[in-house]
Each structure stands twice: as C-alpha cells, then as structure tokens.
C-alpha cells in the first residue's frame, strides 16, 4: 500500500497552526528555538501538561533532554505586538544556539525552573519533563506545567500570518539552514545515505 504523502501532509499541516517558541536552560546556558510541533497533553484542567517535539539536530533538544525543563511560548498577533513576535520568531528560528547566544537578544525573566521566559510573547507555560518518547529523528517531551502566565489580550499568531510578514531574505536563509536539519532527520529515521 502506498501513502499519498501530499494528502497526509495537507491534513497534518492543519494541526500545527501556531509557531511556538521553546526555551530551556542546562548547566547555566540558555537556548531556544521555534517549533510547530507542540500542544496540550492533558485533559485534566487542574493538572495541565504540554508536549513538544524537537529534532535531534537542534542544541535545544539535547538541553531539554539533559535538564528536564522547558518553557513553551505562544506569540501574539496583536498589531501593537506583532513586531516583537516576529523578532522572537526570527531570533530563535534563524540560527543555531551552537553559533552563539540567541536568548540574550530577547527580553526575558527567569522562570521557576530557571528556563528563560520571553516577556514579549503572548503567554507561556513552563514545564518539568515527566515523559520522553524517542521517535528516531526527534524526541517528544511531555511536561507538567509548573508556571504559566498570559501577557497579551490580543489574538495568537498563526504560522501563515507570520510567514507572510517575514522578510524574504530571512526566509531564504531559514530554508538554507533547514536543509541540514532535514537531512539529519532523514539519517536518524532511515539511516545515512551510502
């Protein structure tokens, strides 16, 4: 049986409308990235959980695996806050933490776990990891929410809206940076090419 990957990707892409900024700290070093694979992980209102899926290519993946903490931030689409949201997206999604400190460029406070909290985000949940699932190219982390806050009354930023406002040269650089990450994911899942 053959899978129609175009149909599968069309259905699945509709499940990831919000870009999420993930931050963490490990050994006193803070880092973060942008993800489209995050969400709620509990139906119990008084015991919320969050889930993130991070590819093994990213430094943030290794840091969350080691420290067991992360903060997941939603970005704001409010007209007065959109520029700050796009700055977060471009800062965390435009380069690797292996190339330097990305977090220092953003307004933050220290969360209860020590993870940096992005003050220009729409809101956040801060988590301690309670479950880890290795799925070859990435790891799914489930965390108990230990702190949360909403900073904005505005709407949440959707990826389609964000992508339409990003500079063309940034998108071009992002796509070039994404090539080795995608290859790493394929190598983890299918094995390296001979």
Give a short synopsis of this structure.
The protein has 194 residues and is of the alpha+beta class. 31% of the residues lie in helices and 31% in strands. The chain has helices at residues 5-13, 59-67, 82-93, 159-165, 168-190, and strands spanning 20-26, 29-35, 38-40, 49-55, 69-74, 108-110, 116-118, 123-134, 138-150.
The tally of beta strands, per DSSP, is 9
Determine the CATH topology: Pnp Oxidase, Chain A
Number of domains: 1
CATH uppermost class: Mainly Beta
CATH superfamily: Electron Transport, Fmn-binding Protein, Chain A
> Looking across the biggest beta sheet, what order are the strands in?
2-1-5-8-9-4-3
- Residues in helices, as a percent range: 25-40%
Anisotropy-based shape: globular
Average pLDDT reading: 94
Rg is 16 Å
For the termini, the CA-CA separation is 26 Å
Low-confidence stretches: none
**Given the structure, what is the number of helices?**
5
Order of helices and strands: HEEEEHEHEEEEHH
The largest β sheet comes out as: 7 strands, antiparallel
Overall SS class: alpha+beta
Q: So, CATH architecture? A: Roll
SS strand fraction: 25-35%
Which tags fit this structure?
Pnp Oxidase, Chain A; seven-stranded antiparallel β-sheet; 194 residues; 31% helix; 9 strands; 31% strand; single chain; alpha+beta
Structure description:
- It contains five helices and nine strands, in the order αββββαβαββββαα.
- Helices cover 31% and strands 31% of the residues.
- The model has no long low-confidence stretch (mean pLDDT 94).
- A seven-stranded antiparallel β-sheet has the order 2-1-5-8-9-4-3.
- With 194 residues, it is α+β, with helices and mostly antiparallel strands.
